[in-house]
Design goal:
- The chain has one domain: 2-Layer Sandwich (Alpha-Beta Plaits).
- The chain has a four-stranded antiparallel beta sheet with strand order 2-3-1-4, with helices on one face.
- It has three helices and four strands.
- It is of the alpha+beta class.
Length: about 100
């Protein structure tokens, strides 16, 4: 089973640039070993269970909780049975249909 999650999480009380706070979350995800892809507007990651997906979100919040009074979060999930490795697979499928590699 594949739980493909796209989310963004950041403090709203830390000024205009929040990259130092987002970096904490990305470091945690990177160290967890789960597949992910950082985008300009959020992060996509994939797990095998709902519990794992929600645990990543929970751990992300824990990175900000100590010194952020207000945190904004958006979460989207695409849950599909009998499949895995969709982060790369979905992109490859579109690239094949275009007949070329999409710029990264």
């Amino acid at each position: 089973m594949s739980f493909l999650v796209e989310f963004s999480m950041f403090p709203t009380d830390k000024g205009e640039s929040v990259s130092p706070y987002v970096s904490r979350i990305i470091k945690m995800i990177d160290e967890s070993g789960i597949p992910y892809r950082l985008t300009p507007m959020g992060t996509v990651f994939e797990t095998n269970t709902m519990e794992e997906a929600l645990e990543v979100i929970h751990k992300a919040y824990k990175q900000l909780e100590p010194d952020c009074n207000r945190v904004y979060t958006v979460i989207k999930m695409d849950i599909r049975k009998n499949t895995q490795n969709r982060i790369e697979g979905k992109i490859k499928s579109v690239e094949e249909k275009l007949g070329k590699e999409v710029k990264k």
